[in-house]
Every structure is written in C-alpha cells, then in structure tokens.
Amino acid sequence: MPRSLGITSLQILGAIRDHSPYGLEVVTRTGLASGTVYPTLGRLKRNGLIKARWEDQRAAEREGRPRRRYYELTAEGQRSLAEGASRVATLAADLSSAAVGGAG
User: Fold this and answer.
1) Cα gap 82→57, rounded to integer Å
2) How many other C-beta atoms can be found within 10 angstroms of the C-beta atom of residue 25?
3) Which residue of 23, 40, 73, 102 shows the fewest CB atoms closer than 10 Å?
4) What is the pLDDT of residues 19-61, one digit of tens each?
C-alpha cells in the first residue's frame, strides 16, 4: 500500500476483522455514516485489502431481507491493519506523554 491508511479505513478493517462481515453491521459497529462506510469498502476492495462475496439469494429470502455482501480481510489487509494500529498506538502514546509532560 503506497500510503498509510486513515482512521476511518482502520476502523472499518477492524470491524471486519472482529466479525462484522457486511456493510450495515460495519456501520452499526463503527458508528460511521453509511455514506462513509460503503465508499470506503469499495476503495479497500479495489486496493486489495478486503475481498467480497454476495450471499445466496435464497438465504436472504428465507429471512425476508435483501442479499448481503460479505467482506473478509485479505493477507494484505491484515498487514495494513496491524501496521496502522501500531502507528495509531504510537501516536496516542506520543500525544499522551506530551500532555502529561506539559508540552504544548
């Protein structure tokens, strides 16, 4: 991945990793707007960080709802999430120590 992922992309990857495999569940888990989640899912897919598959139409019909598109992290997505989480943790620690140390 040429550039590092932002917080929104990391949140979405984390939600998918933590068993929120379809769009509306990602929206619910992250609290992000659907107008943010769905375009980001598309970008993550195009960048090879997630893969997607449609569920069987019969499964959706049995539950009386539209078909869901299920997402899964790729190996590259797992690596990118780990790297991004490490970067965010380092940034949070730096900000915390700056706040405690009185640096402004």
Assistant:
1) 34
2) 17
3) 102
4) 999 999 999 999 999 999 999 999 999 999 999 999 999 999 9
Determine the topology of domain 7-91 in CATH. Arc Repressor Mutant, subunit A (1.10.10)
Element (H, E) at 76: helix 75-101
Among 86, 99, 96, 80, which residue's Cα sits nearest to residue 5? 80
Question: Structure tokens of 98?
Answer: 């700056």
Cβ contact 5:34 at 8 Å? no
In the chain, how long is the greatest CA-to-CA distance? Answer: 60
CA separation for the pair 31, 22 (Å, rounded): 14
This prediction has a pTM of 0.85
| Strand residues in 47-94 grouped as ranges (E) | 50-54, 69-73
d(CA 92, CA 65): 41
The structure tokens listed for 75 are 């190996």
